[in-house]
Write a structure and sequence with these properties.
This protein has about 160 residues and is an alpha+beta fold. The protein is built from six helices and six strands. The chain has a six-stranded mixed beta sheet, with helices on both faces. Strand 1 and strand 2 form a beta hairpin.
């Protein structure tokens, strides 16, 4: 569903403030727009969602939430799997959470096959992608330690092997 549809559904279900991790007029909006969501509904109310959009040949992922009463029910992982089954990569994401320590959150992405803060050599032809450049610029010096990651990009891992020889 669209972001506007999700916001409208949230408001009509009278669940309080929308659990957005992004402030209004955020600097992220220019390079990291989230326009669509896959949403888990219980009794017609949104209890979890994961957002996405397309930009510069990448699928941007973000804006995920699970309401407090539904934590530990694997909604995020199921939505994550659903998103990957119903969209095309390569993917890019900002890794930041208000409910999970960033180090732990980063490790969970690495376990699911994400490459966190890859360098230009690893990115190969994607190193000049404007969206990747914007993510790097924003997240590489993030004051709270947020990170960015990619998945589905054929990273040039061989470069690191050659460097060690």
């Amino acid at each position: 569903m669209s972001k506007a549809e999700l916001f409208s559904l949230w408001e009509s279900s009278n669940q309080g403030d929308f659990p957005a991790s992004r402030s209004k007029n955020s600097p992220l909006d220019s390079f990291y727009p989230i326009t669509n969501y896959f949403v888990k509904l219980i009794d017609g109310k949104p209890v979890a969602a994961i957002g996405f959009s397309k930009k510069d040949g990448l699928t941007l992922r973000g804006g995920a939430f699970v309401i407090d009463s539904e934590r530990n029910n694997n909604h995020y992982l199921k939505l994550d799997e659903h998103l990957e089954s119903n969209t095309n990569g390569p993917y890019i994401v900002g890794i930041s959470s208000t409910t999970i320590p960033n180090e732990e959150w980063v490790k969970s992405f690495e376990k699911r096959g994400w490459s966190v803060t890859p360098n230009d050599e690893e990115l190969g032809k994607y190193a000049d992608n404007p969206t990747i450049k914007a993510f790097r610029n924003y997240y590489d010096n993030h004051p709270r330690g947020a990170k960015w990651a990619v998945k589905g990009i054929p990273l040039a891992k061989w470069f690191n092997v050659l460097k060690r020889c």
